[in-house]
TrEMBL record:
Alphabetized InterPro entries for the sequence: ATPase_P-typ_cyto_dom_N (IPR023299), ATPase_P-typ_P_site (IPR018303), ATPase_P-typ_TM_dom_sf (IPR023298), ATPase_P-typ_transduc_dom_A_sf (IPR008250), ATPase_P-type_domA (IPR059000), Cation_Transport_ATPase_IB (IPR051014), HAD-like_sf (IPR036412), HAD_sf (IPR023214)
Principal location: membrane
Pfam families, alphabetized: E1-E2_ATPase, Hemerythrin, Hydrolase
Sequence intervals crossing the membrane: 20-40, 47-65, 77-105, 242-261, 267-288, 569-590
Family in the record: Belongs to the cation transport ATPase (P-type) (TC 3.A.3) family. Type IB subfamily.
Organism: Rhodococcus spongiicola
Domain P-type ATPase A: 127-226
Protein name: Heavy metal translocating P-type ATPase
Family annotation (CDD domains): Hr-like
C-alpha cells in the first residue's frame, strides 16, 4: 500500500493545539485585566492587557510575513497595525480586545487544509495489513507487503480481499459495493478475477495473487485520493476580499491625517477605529452560526470555506447507490401462484434464511422483520454457495435461492422472471416441499425523498445534475431518466469518477455526493465533497467537506440555503461594519474622535455587527408536531405492507387476460376483500386523521386536496370492481362482456395506487423526522 509522510502523533497534537492555546492566553489576559480593573488595580490591569496584546502581535506578525511571501495581503495587516497602534497610544483594553478577536478568527479557520492527511489515514485504516497465505502444511499470516504474484491466499468470511487476483476455489460470494457501488452481492467462479478492497460476503475461499499490494486496485484508490486532495486549494476568505480595498483605504486615511495635522495620535486613532473587528468576528460568527444551524438538520460542514463554496455551487455530481437509492437490497415484491399467500411465502423464506450470511438472505429476513412477521427457527439448515438455503421450517422443507425454470414452469413464475428482468431485480425462488410456491424480487429501491430532493436542489441554485456510478447502465439510466438528471455515466471505475468530477469542476463550482470507499477520491477532487455519512464508509466521511449524518439527501438542499444565507449575512455584517468604521475614521482623522473614545465606538460597532451575524442561527423551518410525526411513521409503515399486496390487482388482470374466467372470479373475490377490508380503511383514515394534521406544517389544507381527490378515484374504481363481482356472482361467473372493463379497472387501479403511494411518500412522509438509529423501534 502507498505510504505518506505523517508527523508523529504528538507533533500533530501540538500543532493543532496552537490556535486554542492562543485563544486561551488572550482570553485569560483580557479577563484577568478586567478583574484587576474592577478591583482598582489599574496598573495590573494595563499589564495584563499589554501582555495579551503583545502575545497577539507575535503570531500576527508571522501571518503578515507568510501572507506577503505568498503574494497576498489581507486583514492580518490591519490587525497588526491596530495592535501596535493601541500600545503606542496606550489604549491597552482595545489592544486586548483586538487580540482575542484575532485569536477567535484564527481558531475558527484552524482546521482548514488538514483534510488530505485524514483522507489517507482513513483509507489506509480500512486496508488490510496482513494476508493469509497457503503453504504446504496449512496457512500462515504474513505482512501484506510480503505477498508476491502467483501465491495462493485464503480469504475468510467478512474479510477484505488483500490484493487483486483470481478465484482458485469453487465459488466466491463477494460484496463489491466498496468499489463499484453495486449493492447486490456477486458470485465469482473459479478463474474469475477479484479486486482488492472488496469484502468476502460468503464462506472462505481461496485466490491466487496476480498483483502485489502496491499495484492492486485499493492502492490505486488511495493514490487517487492523495492526488485529488493535493489539488484542493483553500478558498480565499470573504474577509480577505473585503480587506483588499479596505486596507489601502485605512492606511491612506491614517497617513493623510498624520501629514495634515502633524499628530501621530490622529493617525493611531484612525487605525484604532479601522481595526477590522467586524471582519475578524462578524464573518466567523455568521459562518459558525450557519454551521451550527446546519448541524441541527444532521448536516455537518467541516469549515467555513466548505460552507462558502456550498453557497456558490451550481453543479452537482452524485453516486447512485446509497445516494439516490437506499444502498441495500430490499424485498420489492413477493409473487406467488394464484392461490398463494405472499405473507406466508415471505415468512417461510425469511425463517429459512435466518442462519445465512448472504446479503440477499439478510435482506429477506430484514423485510420480514420490518413487516412484523413471526419467524420460526429452522432446523437441518444447509446452504450451498451460489445456489441458496434449504431448511425445515414448521415441518416443511423450504428452499430459497436461485433456480433454472423448466420449460413447463407455471405462467406466474415465467411472469415473475420477466418482471425481474424488466425491474433490474434479483430474484429468490421459494419452494415448499418441492413445489415452487413464490418468488421474492429484491431491488435497491430509489429513496423516497429522491424526487423531492432533486426539485429542491434545482430550486436551491443547482442547474446541472450528473450521476456517476459504478452500477450497470440499465438501472442507472432508468433512475436518471425518472429524476430528470442532466447526464448519467454508468459503469464508472474510481478513476473514471475522479476524471468526471474534475471535468465538472472545470465548468463550475461542483458538489459531489457519494457513499462508499469508491467515492472518496471523487469527493476529494470536487469543490465540495458530501458524504452520506450515516451509512457510508469512514473513508468517504473523512474525504468529504460535508457529512449528512441523518442519511437524508434532502437536507443537502437545506444546507445550501443555509450556506447562501450565512454567506450573505457575513458579507452584509462585514460591509456594514466597515462602512461604520469608515465614518468613524473620518471623525478620527479630523480630531473629533480620540483613540480611547474610538476604541469604545469600535466595540459598539462590533456588537452591532455580531448581533446581525447571529441572525444566521435562525431560519424558517417546517415544524412537524410529535403526534403528526408518529402518524406519518404509522401510515408509512402501512404503505410498506400494502405495496406488496398491490400485485394482486395485476395478477388478477393477468389471469383475466389468459381467458381463465373461473380462476379470475376467485381472484376477484380476493381483490374485493383486500380493497374493502384493508386498502379503503387505510385511505379513509388518511383523510380523517393524517391530512387535517398536515394542514399546520404545510400551511393550509389545500396542500392535501389533490391527494383527497385521488382517494375519491380509488374508491370509485374499487366500487366499480365490486359491482363487477356482484354481477359475476349473480350470473354464476364472469361474462365475456365484462372482460374489457374489468381489465381497465384492474390495471387502472393498480397504476393509480402506485402513483398515489409515491406521491404521498414523497410529499408527506418525508416530513417526518428520521427515527434514532439507536432506538429499538
Amino acid at each position: 500500500m502507498p505510504s505518506f509522510d505523517a508527523r508523529p502523533r504528538w507533533v500533530e497534537r501540538l500543532r493543532r493545539s496552537r490556535e486554542p492555546a492562543f485563544l486561551a492566553v488572550t482570553g485569560l489576559a483580557l479577563v484577568a485585566g478586567g478583574i484587576a480593573w474592577l478591583a482598582g488595580a489599574r496598573e495590573v490591569a494595563d499589564a495584563c492587557w499589554i501582555a495579551g496584546t503583545a502575545v497577539a502581535i507575535v503570531p500576527a506578525t508571522w501571518w503578515v510575513v507568510d501572507a506577503l511571501r505568498n503574494g497576498r495581503v489581507g486583514v492580518d495587516v490591519i490587525a497588526l497595525l491596530s495592535l501596535i497602534g493601541t500600545l503606542l497610544v496606550e489604549e491597552y483594553l482595545a489592544g486586548a480586545l483586538i487580540a482575542i478577536m484575532l485569536a477567535t478568527g484564527q481558531a475558527l479557520d484552524a482546521a482548514a487544509g488538514r483534510r488530505a492527511t485524514k483522507d489517507l489515514r482513513s483509507l489506509l485504516d480500512r486496508a488490510p495489513r496482513t494476508a493469509r497465505r497457503r503453504i504446504d502444511d496449512g496457512v500462515e499470516t504474513v505482512p501484506l507487503e510480503d505477498i508476491t504474484v502467483g501465491e495462493v491466499l485464503v480469504v475468510g468470511a467478512g474479510e477484505v480481499v488483500p490484493v487483486d487476483g483470481w478465484v482458485t476455489s469453487g465459488l466466491a460470494v463477494l460484496d463489491e459495493s466498496a468499489l463499484t457501488g453495486e449493492p447486490l452481492a456477486v458470485s465469482r467462479r473459479r478463474g474469475e478475477a477479484v479486486r482488492s478492497g472488496i469484502v468476502n460476503a460468503g464462506p472462505v475461499f481461496e485466490m491466487q495473487a496476480r498483483a502485489t499490494a502496491e499495484e492492486s486496485t485499493y492502492a490505486g484508490i488511495v493514490r487517487l485520493a492523495q492526488d485529488a486532495a493535493a489539488e484542493s486549494a483553500p478558498v480565499v476568505r470573504v474577509a480577505d476580499r473585503i480587506a483588499g480595498w479596505f486596507l489601502p483605504l485605512a492606511l491612506a486615511v491614517s497617513g493623510a491625517a498624520w501629514l495634515l495635522s502633524g499628530s501621530a495620535t490622529r493617525a493611531v486613532a484612525v487605525l484604532v477605529v479601522a481595526t477590522p473587528c467586524p471582519l475578524l468576528l462578524a464573518v466567523p460568527v455568521a459562518i459558525v452560526s450557519g454551521l451550527s444551524r446546519a448541524s441541527r438538520l444532521g448536516v455537518v460542514i467541516r469549515n467555513g470555506s466548505a460552507l462558502e463554496n456550498l453557497g456558490h455551487a451550481t453543479s452537482l455530481v452524485m453516486d447512485k447507490t446509497g445516494t439516490l437509492t437506499t444502498g441495500r437490497p430490499t424485498g420489492a415484491e413477493v409473487l406467488t401462484a394464484p392461490d398463494g399467500d405472499p405473507t406466508e411465502v415471505l415468512r417461510l423464506a425469511a425463517s429459512a434464511d435466518q442462519l445465512s450470511p448472504h446479503v440477499l438472505a439478510d435482506a429477506i429476513v430484514q423485510e420480514a422483520r420490518i413487516r412484523g412477521l413471526e419467524l420460526s427457527l429452522p432446523t437441518e439448515a444447509d446452504e450451498e454457495v451460489g445456489t441458496g438455503v434449504t431448511a425445515i421450517v414448521d415441518g416443511r422443507r423450504v428452499t430459497v435461492g436461485t433456480l433454472d425454470l423448466p420449460a413447463d414452469a407455471p405462467g406466474w413464475a415465467r411472469s415473475a422472471k420477466g418482471r425481474a428482468a424488466l425491474d433490474g431485480a434479483a430474484i429468490a425462488w421459494v419452494t415448499v416441499d418441492g413445489v415452487l410456491t413464490g418468488a421474492i424480487l429484491l431491488t435497491d429501491p430509489m429513496r423516497r425523498d429522491a424526487f423531492r430532493t432533486i426539485r429542491r436542489l434545482r430550486s436551491a441554485g443547482l442547474n446541472r445534475l450528473v450521476m456517476l456510478t459504478g452500477d450497470r447502465r440499465e438501472p442507472a439510466e432508468e433512475i436518471g431518466s425518472a429524476l430528470g438528471l442532466d447526464a448519467v455515466y454508468a459503469e464508472q471505475s474510481p478513476a473514471d469518477k475522479v476524471a468526471g468530477v474534475r471535468a465538472e469542476r472545470e465548468r463550475a463550482v461542483t458538489v459531489m455526493v457519494g457513499d462508499g470507499v469508491n467515492d472518496a477520491p471523487a469527493l476529494a477532487a470536487s469543490t465540495v465533497g458530501v458524504a452520506m455519512g450515516a451509512r457510508g464508509s469512514t473513508a468517504t466521511s473523512e474525504a468529504a467537506d460535508v457529512v449528512l449524518t441523518t442519511d437524508r439527501l434532502d437536507h443537502l438542499a437545506d444546507a445550501m440555503a443555509i450556506a447562501r444565507r450565512s454567506r450573505r449575512i457575513a458579507v452584509q455584517s462585514a460591509a456594514v461594519g466597515m462602512g461604520l468604521s469608515l465614518v468613524a475614521m473620518g471623525f478620527a482623522a479630523f480630531g473629533l474622535l480620540p483613540p480611547a473614545a474610538g476604541a469604545l465606538l469600535q466595540e459598539g460597532i462590533d456588537v452591532a455587527v455580531i448581533l446581525n451575524a447571529l441572525r444566521a442561527l435562525r431560519g424558517k423551518k417546517v415544524h412537524v408536531p410529535v403526534e403528526t410525526a408518529a402518524m406519518l411513521h404509522r401510515f408509512s409503515a402501512e404503505h410498506d405492507e400494502l405495496r406488496d399486496q398491490l400485485s394482486i390487482l395485476r395478477d388478477t388482470a393477468g389471469l383475466l387476460a389468459t381467458g381463465d374466467l373461473a380462476a379470475t372470479h376467485d381472484a376477484l373475490r380476493r381483490v374485493d376483500t383486500f380493497l374493502f377490508d384493508t386498502l379503503l380503511p387505510h385511505e379513509e383514515a388518511e383523510d380523517r386523521e393524517l391530512y387535517p394534521a398536515l394542514a399546520t406544517p404545510l400551511g393550509n389544507s389545500e396542500a392535501t386536496a389533490t391527494m383527497s381527490r385521488m382517494h375519491t378515484e380509488i374508491d370509485r374504481l374499487a366500487r366499480r370492481l365490486r359491482t363487477h363481482l356482484q354481477h359475476a356472482d349473480a350470473a354464476g361467473g364472469i361474462s365475456a362482456d365484462q372482460v374489457d372493463d374489468l381489465l381497465a379497472c384492474l390495471y387502472g387501479l393498480h397504476a393509480v395506487l402506485k402513483l398515489h403511494f409515491v406521491q404521498e411518500e414523497e410529499n408527506y412522509f418525508t416530513l417526518a423526522p428520521v427515527p434514532d438509529a439507536t432506538s429499538n423501534s
